[in-house]
Design a protein that fits this description.
about 525 residues; Nuclear Transport Factor 2, Chain: A; disordered N terminus; alpha+beta; single chain; Beta-lactamase
C-alpha cells in the first residue's frame, strides 16, 4: 500500500465526539483556535483546489483542532463523468492509513494480556513455524517486527494492493507454503503490506473474532464511526466515492474490491466526518495527564504508537517551504511514521495509495492539530499540499504548542536562578542545591563568572516565564540592559529536587557600525 498523501473538505464547523477531549473541555484561551482555523480556511482551500488540477475526480479534506473538525471542504465528484458532488459524508477507501487501526488493535490486545509484542508471530499463526529463514542465524519474526516493518519481508507495492480480496483460505495456504525473504529480520525497515496482513491474522486468532469485527466493534463504533468499516457493500452505494485511475487521457474505473484478508493493511472505508473522529481521538492522547480514560484504548497506548525505535532516517520535509529546507529525523513507528520537524516539532503521518484512491493524514500532537485528505484517484499523492497546509497554519501563528505546566520545584529553582544573577553570588540559592553543585564549581568562581556576565549585558529582567521541557528542567530568556541572557535550569532526580546545574549564556548587543 503506497504511502501517499492528500486532504479534502466542505465549509462547515462540526463537533467531533471522539471519546476524547472536546472543545468544551479545553481552556477558554484555546477554544478560539477552531474559529481562527475557519477564518484562515480560504488559504487552505486554495492549496487543495490547486491540487485538483492533477487531475483528481473528487477530494475531501479536513482540519481537526482542539478535538473538533474545525474545517472541512470538498471538491469535485464522487463519480465521473457528470456524477454527484463529493460531500463530507462521501465514503472513501483510505488504503494504508488503515494500518494505524491494525496497529492499535494489536496494542489493545497486548493491554488485555492476550499477547506480547515480543511474542514470535508463529505463536499466534502456527503456519509460520515451518518457514525457511534466509540465514541460519536469522531471528524469527516477532509481533513488533511486523508492526515496524522490520520482518525481512520485501516491499510489496503495488502487488500487495491487489491482494485485498484474498480469502482467508488462500492466505492460509500462502502462509503454509512460506514466502521468500529479502533479508534476515531486524536488519532494516522495509515497508510490507504482507506483514500487516499477518497482523490481521494475529488479531483474528488472538481475539477469536474476525479481524474486521474486532476493530469495528471495539474501536470504531465506540468512537462514533458509524459510517466506517471494511465491507464496502454494507453502506449505501449512492454515498460511495468510486475509484478511478487516469489513463489515456480519460478516467478508467478501478474494480471494486471486496473485503479480504489483506484488509488489515488497507481496507478501511470512511468519510471525512468519521475520520475526523479518529484523528481527534489520536490527538487526545497528548499531553500525558491525570484524569479518567474516555476512549476505547488507553491514552498511553495511543502515544506508544508514536515510538519510532528502529532505523531512523533523514528526510527532507515534503512541500515547498521558504528558506533552508528542513531535514527531518524520521522512523516508522506502529502504523504511523514519526518525524521531528524543524518548525512543527513531533509529527505523525501516514499516506495511503490504492487502486482508485489516495489519502494522507498528518498529526501535530504538540499543537493539538491534525490534517487529513481523501481522494478517489489511484495513488493520488498531494504530499506537498498537506505539508504546505500545515506550514501555512504555522506561518499564520495558529499552531500554538500545548503549554507544559511548571512544577513547583522548577518554579522555586527558577526564581532562585534570577535572584542569584541579580545578587551576583549563590547566597539566594542556599538550601536548594543538589550535592554535586558546589563540587562542580566553587562559590568564589560563581561570583567571578556572574560578575563578568553583568559587565557584558548588565542587569536583566528575570521575571520572564520559564519554558519547561519537563517537570525537572526548563529554558529561559531574559531581556538585559546591554543584550539578553539565555539559560537553563536542571534539577536532580532527588526528593526534594535540588538544582544540579545552572547555565547562563550572555548575548551582548552588537555595537552599531
Amino acid at each position: 500500500m503506497r504511502r501517499l498523501l492528500l486532504l479534502a473538505a466542505a465549509t462547515a464547523l462540526m463537533p467531533v465526539q471522539a471519546g476524547a477531549q472536546t472543545a468544551q473541555s479545553q481552556p477558554a484561551a484555546r477554544q478560539s483556535l477552531v474559529d481562527r482555523v475557519e477564518q484562515f480556511s480560504p488559504q487552505l482551500d486554495s492549496i487543495f483546489e490547486a491540487f485538483m488540477g492533477a487531475p483528481v475526480p473528487g477530494l475531501a479534506y479536513g482540519v481537526v483542532a482542539d478535538g473538533r473538525l474545525a474545517h472541512v471542504r470538498t471538491f469535485g465528484l464522487r463519480t465521473v463523468p457528470g456524477g454527484a458532488p463529493v460531500t463530507p459524508d462521501t465514503r472513501f477507501r483510505i488504503a494504508s492509513m488503515s494500518k494505524a487501526f491494525t496497529a492499535l488493535a494489536i496494542l489493545k490486545l497486548r493491554d488485555e494480556g492476550r499477547l506480547r509484542l515480543d511474542d514470535l508471530a508463529e505463536q499466534h499463526v502456527p503456519e509460520l513455524r515451518n518457514w525457511r529463514y534466509p540465514t541460519t542465524d536469522s531471528p524469527r519474526i516477532r509481533v513488533r517486527d511486523l508492526l515496524a516493518h522490520s520482518g525481512g519481508l520485501v516491499t510489496d507495492d503495488p502487488w500487495g494492493d491487489r491482494q485485498q480480496v484474498l480469502s482467508e483460505a488462500d492466505f492460509t495456504r500462502m502462509l503454509r507454503d512460506g514466502v521468500p525473504f529479502t533479508r534476515a529480520p531486524q536488519l532494516s525497515m522495509e515497508y510490507s503490506n504482507f506483514g500487516y496482513a499477518l497482523l490481521g491474522r494475529i488479531i483474528t486468532n488472538v481475539s477469536g473474532r474476525p479481524y474486521k469485527d474486532y476493530i469495528e466493534q471495539t474501536i470504531m463504533r465506540p468512537l462514533g464511526m458509524a459510517a466506517t468499516g471494511y465491507d464496502i457493500s454494507e453502506g449505501p452505494a449512492e454515498m460511495r466515492a468510486i475509484g478511478y485511475r487516469w489513463e489515456n487521457d480519460a478516467w478508467a474505473r478501478e474494480p471494486d474490491m471486496r473485503h479480504g484478508t489483506f484488509g488489515a493493511m488497507g481496507g478501511v472505508q470512511t468519510t471525512a466526518q468519521d475520520y475526523a473522529r479518529w484523528i481527534a481521538f489520536l490527538l487526545s492522547a497528548w499531553p500525558a495527564r491525570d484524569g479518567p480514560e474516555t476512549g476505547p484504548v488507553r491514552r498511553s497506548t495511543v502515544r506508544e504508537m508514536a515510538q519510532g525505535l528502529n532505523f531512523v532516517a533523514v528526510a527532507r520535509r515534503p512541500g515547498q517551504t521558504e528558506g533552508e529546507p528542513c531535514q527531518q529525523a524520521t522512523a516508522y513507528a506502529m502504523g504511523l511514521r514519526v518525524a521531528q520537524d524543524c518548525a512543527l516539532g513531533l509529527t505523525l503521518a501516514h499516506g495511503g495509495g490504492y487502486p482508485g484512491y489516495g489519502s494522507y493524514m498528518l498529526l501535530l500532537p504538540e499543537h493539538g492539530v491534525g490534517l487529513f485528505a481523501l481522494t478517489n484517484r489511484t495513488y493520488s499523492a498531494p504530499v506537498p499540499a498537506v505539508w504546505n497546509a500545515a506550514m501555512a497554519l504555522h506561518g499564520a501563528g495558529l499552531l500554538e504548542r500545548t503549554a507544559v505546566p511548571v512544577s513547583a520545584s522548577l518554579d522555586r529553582a527558577y526564581r532562585a536562578a534570577g535572584a542569584i544573577y541579580t545578587a551576583g553570588n549563590l547566597d539566594p540559592g542556599q538550601g536548594l542545591f543538589a550535592m554535586n553543585f558546589l563540587m562542580d564549581r566553587s562559590p568564589e568562581n560563581w561570583a567571578r563568572v556572574l560578575g563578568e556576565m553583568r559587565r557584558q549585558v548588565g542587569a536583566c529582567r528575570t521575571d520572564a516565564p520559564i519554558a519547561p521541557n519537563g517537570a525537572l528542567a526548563g529554558n529561559f530568556a531574559w531581556t538585559c540592559e546591554r543584550g539578553r541572557m539565555e539559560g537553563r535550569v536542571l534539577l536532580a532526580p532527588t526528593d526534594p529536587a535540588g538544582i544540579q546545574a545552572l547555565n547562563f549564556r550572555p548575548i551582548p548587543n552588537v555595537p552599531a557600525q
